[in-house]
Amino acid sequence: MDLSKLFENNQDHSRKKNGSNRKMILKKQIFSILYLESSKTIADLCHPVNVSIPTMTRLMHELINEGWIVELGAGESRGGRKPVFYGLNPFIRYILGIEISRKYTRINIFDLHNRPLGETVQLDIELKNAPEMLQGLKKELDLFIKKKKIDKSKILGAGISIPGLLDKKTNINYSFPNLGNLPLDSMFSELFEIPTFVEHDTKAIALGELWFGLAKNRSNVLCLNIGSGIGLGMIMKGELYQGVSGFSGEFGHIQMVPNGELCDCGKIGCLETVASGTALVSKAKKNISEGTNSIIKKLVDGDTEKIKLPLIIQAAHQGDQFAIELIEESGGYLAQGIAILIHLLNPEMIIIGGDLADAENLLADPIQQKLNKYTINRIRQDTVIHISELKGLAGLLGTIPVVMTNIFSQTPNIINLNHKLVHDTRSN
Ligand SMILES: [Zn+2]
Predict the structure, then answer these.
(1) Which terminus of the chain is less hemmed in, N or C, by CB atoms within 10 Å?
(2) How far is the CA of 357 from the centre of ligand 1 (A)?
(3) Measured in angstroms, how far is the CA atom of residue 252 from the centroid of ligand 1?
(4) For residues 191 and 206, what is the distance between their CA atoms, to the nearest angstrom?
(5) Same-domain status, 235 and 348
(6) What pTM was computed for the model?
(7) Domain check: are 223 and 372 in the same one?
(8) Whether residue 26 is found in the same domain as residue 142
């Protein structure tokens, strides 16, 4: 059996292939368990895979010979011989992470222990120029993979996090029609020559928080992404909530100010127009040009056009009253929106992420204070508000679960197992 094909779609259903298909499925199950749970003994693996110890021993020997699995050493004895633990060879396959935002794209490669291979690379490629952007991205990716001395065929899959209205039924992004009217996953798979899976940026952040951040081992968590826009990723019953078409979580476009400013979406007075990073920057530009006193002016040498969100946050951390008030005001509007979420969904945790989360308590405190005002005590007490610990890393890390859950779901026996395992891991 050619195990280099362990994670390729096997469409051949002829009878003579059935035996090897079953073996392949069993091996994929072992792979998925060891990927999700790091290390297991042969006896531990028998129950979830539903095979006898001799069969499991045979499968494990094959997987070791083929390089997929390594022996990790002996554990504590439970009365008899010390059990031997096995784990995945982390370098047998890799995951390519691509986080596309409006202004830049970040890339990195992860091993099967989810560790990045060196520094993340940030490319200054703008999403609006899609055709040039795609060719540029392909070139940079090929170069990056070559530099890491990795054979492209060893990349299990690429995960893409992308902003915009991404329809999960068709995989078409309606906000960026210049990406082509093709399903994005097949378009990118063909372009990169790597199986590629696409997820909405805020949902990728929520997956990053669920697998690696504060949402780990939790069931009902809301992840806010406050940057140039305002998005919401919802973890419900331990899983990412999509909605009927994947358009859920457009939190930034609930109306906050009747007769307010025009939003990018075409509506008036959306939360984004008053509380996002973009809104903060335009408020700072306007007020400072009109004479408001702030150290931001000094930070940009008097050129208000140079004002960017990180500078406002920096000024606030330095105690600048104007910058602090801007962030407070944003927190107040956000709290009005979050109060609705708390009353509707009764979440156990709300994680505040995105660029504005760098303001830390200067943002979290006003949100908490205003929530005291806007929410019913009894309901609010169930919900803790936290600034993300992963910060800007959540989106890129979230591309790992985007790839792995898609890979696991290609084998029907694995998807149930995967859900069960993730659940079991949580209850430990
Ligand atoms: Zn809007």
Answers:
(1) C
(2) 21
(3) 6
(4) 27
(5) yes
(6) 0.89
(7) yes
(8) no
Whether residue 42 is found in the same domain as residue 161: no
CA distance 353 to 394: 8
Distance of CA 221 from the midpoint of ligand 1 (Å):
24
Task: Provide the 3-class DSSP secondary structure of residue 378.
Answer: helix
Residue 325 Cα to ligand 1 midpoint, Å, equals: 23
Between the CA of 291 and the centroid of ligand 1 the distance, in Å, is 29
Could you tell me if 101 and 193 lie in one domain? yes
Number of domains composing the chain: 3
CA 367–ligand 1 middle distance (angstroms): 21
| Domain C-terminal end among 389, 404, 419 | 389
**Rounded to the nearest whole angstrom, what is the distance from the C-alpha of residue 246 to the centroid of ligand 1?**
17
Question: Does one domain contain both 34 and 152?
Answer: no
**Same domain (yes/no): 172, 297:** no
Ligand 1 center to 261 CA (angstroms): 10
CATH number of the domain at 269, please: 3.30.420.40
- pLDDT per residue as tens, the chain (428 positions): 334 455 544 444 555 567 778 888 899 999 999 999 889 999 999 999 999 999 999 999 999 999 999 999 887 877 778 889 999 999 999 999 999 988 889 999 999 999 999 999 999 887 776 777 888 899 999 999 999 999 999 999 999 999 988 998 899 888 887 777 789 999 999 999 999 999 999 999 999 999 999 999 999 999 999 999 999 999 999 999 999 999 999 999 999 999 999 999 999 999 999 999 999 999 999 999 999 999 999 999 999 999 999 999 999 999 999 999 999 999 999 999 999 999 999 999 999 999 999 999 999 999 999 999 999 999 999 999 999 999 889 999 999 999 999 988 875 445 444 444 443 333 33
User: Does 200 lie in the same domain as 248?
Assistant: no
Look at the alpha carbons of 133, 135, 136, 138 in this order and tell me if their dihedral is positive or negative.
positive
- Find tokens 């973890």 and name the residue: 235
**Rounded to the nearest whole angstrom, what is the distance from the C-alpha of residue 283 to the centroid of ligand 1?**
17
Distance 182 CA to ligand 1 centre (A): 26
Distance 311 CA to ligand 1 centre (A): 25
255 CA → ligand 1 middle, Å: 8
> According to the 3-state scheme, what is the secondary structure of 186-236?
HHHHHHHCCCEEEEEHHHHHHHHHHHHCCCCCCCCEEEEEECCCEEEEEEE
Q: Which of 363, 32, 390 is nearest to 206 (CA)?
A: 390
Q: How far is the CA of 333 from the centre of ligand 1 (A)?
A: 14
Tell me the CATH number at 77. Answer: 1.10.10.10
Q: Which domain holds residue 78?
A: 3-88
Last residue of a domain, one of 60, 88, 116: 88
Q: State the distance from the centre of ligand 1 to the C-alpha of 274, rounded, in angstroms.
A: 10
Measure 100 CA to ligand 1 centroid, in angstroms: 21
